[in-house]
Amino acid sequence: MSRRVAEATEARQLADDFPNGKCVSQWVANRPRISIRHAQRLVVKRASASTPDAVMDYNNNLKSVLDKSDLLDKPERLWNCDETGVCPQGRGRERVICPKGLRANVQRSDDRENVGITACVSASGFTSSWASTRNGIGWRKQRRALVVP
Predict the structure, then answer these.
(1) Which one in 3, 17, 86, 133 has a CA-CA gap of 20 to 30 Å to 46?
(2) Mean pLDDT across the stretch 125-141?
(3) How many other C-beta atoms lie within 10 A of the C-beta of residue 131?
(4) Cα–Cα distance between 10 and 143 in angstroms, integer?
């Protein structure tokens, strides 16, 4: 890849002994704690990390923060805004270098057509209308087109 970049930019000529795929394979082979694997979708990893213990710890921490902030009885002041990107996932068979024993998680798009969606909801149940952003359109133009209740 680096050789292709250098050749495309014609910045300088690469030496014949420039690191190649064999060099990377040897580097990985000399490190017993590293391996090359096929990447796993990020959604799968998130689902496997949501163990009952992790969820219980999160809820306990959240309750203590809400108690300290005096927000337990004020649900209208608690909002959750979440933004997510929507894009084609491609084939998902990328090979990546990662530590042994850990999954290789990669999320990427093969093209530049991405859409971001933002939604907000309060703990009392009030929701605002969702907003979307598209690649290539300025935020101000999109904002004018939004319909907010």
Answers:
(1) 133
(2) 63
(3) 19
(4) 42
